[in-house]
Amino acid sequence: MYLLVFLVSFLCLQHILAQEYHVKDFNATGNGIADDTSAVRAAVAAAAKSNGGRVVVDAGYTFLTGCFNISSNFILDIRGTILGSQNSDHYALVDPLPW
Q1: How many angstroms separate the CA atoms of 63 and 39, rounded?
Q2: Residue pair 23/54 in contact by the 8 Å Cβ criterion
Q3: Which of 7, 15, 66, 98 has the most CB atoms within 10 Å of its CB?
């Protein structure tokens, strides 16, 4: 029984790890100047909508962003830099994701 639970868990984890959502693919510039909040939020939403995956903050870039929700069932893989915006407009209330 334990082996069956382990195998199912392992296969589910492998499925989640296989789906990657790079913030650059969602039109983030990564130059540290332009607002990348919507691109980061879109990548997180895509991972949540597809029932999991890996949201990748691409290496070699600096992403200027406001707040975004971290939900369950995905991995936030920070390879680059996340720079918090100093613009208070970038911190609008983000609706919680349905669970």
Answers
A1: 10
A2: no
A3: 66
- End-to-end CA distance of the chain: give it in Å, rounded: 28
Q: What is the largest CA-CA distance in the chain?
A: 53
Position 16 pLDDT exceeds 60: no
CA-wise closest residue to 70 among 92, 34, 43: 43
Distance CA(90)–CA(67), nearest Å, equals: 7
DSSP letter string, the chain: -HHHHHHHHHHHHHHHHH-EEEGGGGT---EEEEE-HHHHHHHHHHHHHTT-EEEEE-TT-EEEE------SSEEEEE-SEEEE---GGGGPPPPPPP-
What's the CA gap between 70 and 43, in Å, rounded? 11
